Amino acid sequence: MMSKASIGQSRNIVIGSLLLLCSAVIFYIYYEPTMSWRPCSETPLSKEDICTKACLHVPKVENQSQIITNCTSVQEKMSASQSPSLEKEDAANPHESETIVLIWKWPFGYQFELESCESDYGIKGCHLTADRNLFDKAHGIMFHLRDIGGEVQYLLTLSRSPRQKWVWMKMESPANSPQLNGADDLFNLTSNYRRDSDIWVPYGRIKEISDKDEPFKIPEKDKLVCWIVSNWNNNYRRVGYFNELSQHIKVETYGRHFGRYVNGEDYGPIVSSCKFYLSFENSIYKDYITEKLFSPMRLGTVPIVLGPSRENYEEFIPKDSFIHVDDFKTPQELAEHLKRVDQNQEMYEKYFAWRKDFAVQNTLGHEHACRICEHLKRHKNFKIFKNVNKWFWS
Questions:
Q1: From edge to edge, which strands make up the β-sheet containing 199-200?
Q2: What are φ and ψ of residue 178, in 5° steps?
Q3: How far apart are CA 47 and CA 40, in angstroms?
Q4: Are strands 358-362 and 204-208 parallel, antiparallel or unpaired?
Q5: How far apart are the first and last CA of the chain?
Q6: What is the pLDDT of residue 60?
Q7: Residues 6+ apart with CB under 8 A from 257
Q8: Residues involved in catalysis
Q9: CB–CB of 205/360 below 8 Å?
Q10: Which residues are 28's β-sheet partners?
Q11: How high is the mean pLDDT in each 10-residue block of the chain (394 residues)?
């Protein structure tokens, strides 16, 4: 058996060895050599792990609790010294974990809120930006075709990541859009009013009302039929139809063509004061149903539509919320119907029965960018859209 003196001497040796080991660890933590002396491994231990293994994984001896306390203090100091650099790194890359969509040019020059994809559409983890300095970091770039006609050759010279998606975004109809020569192999995705595009975004939507929405009330009316138009072309079907309709009923006309320019502030009050509004499209294509329909509906006016078929309209809006010119054999028959409805409030109010359950949401640019981000988050596959000109203009 060992004597008490021998046991005490052994214990002192163990304690002394532990203190020496922790002193070495502390020296290692605060001294950073220019060249690492530790052997390489696939998963090297962190400084915190080294300290933990050295100080905790030992036989229980007297004053071990104090040794552990000292070591824990060292770990806390180490963590505190590291945290500022981590905060700096986070500040330098605040959107590192988000999907970044670069808006190459504002659609129609219209600037919108960049950080509201989640609040407006429930789309999380998106960062929209118009800063081209983030070109290399962007996961996707939205190009509004109307605004880049002269830039195609320049775009072809840009160096882009194979993972970066370029999105062809267009809201005008083919009749009002020039083709982009040399752009057939430039884009990966399309975002358009057409439902066969990759990222479909219409000009507006009918959405269910929420408990927060105020009950709908038909605005006061002092005009029967109204029309605001600036783009006048005698070859348009809508011009010929208007010329005949106006011979049978009074139409209050506004817009540059009629010398009565309407600004953004006046548009709402004018349209809402009309019982009916001529929502006549400038060209007729499937799914091409624009703000000319959705804005009057939102403002509490019954739209009279001229565009694609009634069947196509009913895919977007309630069938009793609008009047289609094709419902009548002639513009004169339509005029007679409007006069009858004008004299019968109950008939007129039936056009708003849908407002008990639904409301209108207009879209422009902002939703495109958010939906593009949503698509990029869900779809990581490779894709290129070849012959985009043929697809859209054929």
A1: 126-129, 99-103, 140-144, 165-170, 189-192, 199-200
A2: -75, 150
A3: 14
A4: antiparallel
A5: 101
A6: 40
A7: 229, 230, 231, 232
A8: 172
A9: yes
A10: none
A11: 52 57 51 38 37 38 41 43 41 70 92 91 95 96 89 91 95 89 89 96 93 90 97 95 98 96 95 98 97 97 98 98 98 98 98 96 87 96 90 89
* CB-based contact 55:26 (threshold 8 Å): no
Distance (Å, whole) CA 329 – CA 327 = 7
| Separation between Cα atoms, residue 311 and residue 220, nearest integer Å | 31
Cβ–Cβ under 8 Å, residues 328 and 337? yes
Alpha-carbon gap, residue 346 to 370, rounded angstroms: 41
Residue 255 pairs in a beta bridge with 260
Torsion 46-48-51-55 (CA) sign: negative
Structure tokens at 269: 């009050």
Q: Which tokens sit at 339?
A: 């006069």
Task: Tell me the angle at which helices 64-92 and 4-30 cross, rounded to the nearest 10 degrees.
Answer: 10
State how far the Cα of 277 lies from the Cα of 263, in Å rounded to an integer: 17
Query: Which residues partner with 274 through β-bridges?
Result: 223
- Give the chain's length: 394
> Do the beta carbons of residue 326 and residue 309 sit within 8 Å?
yes
* Residue 232 exposed, middle or buried by CB count within 10 Å (0-12, 13-18, 19+): middle
Strand 302-306 and strand 274-280: the pairing is parallel
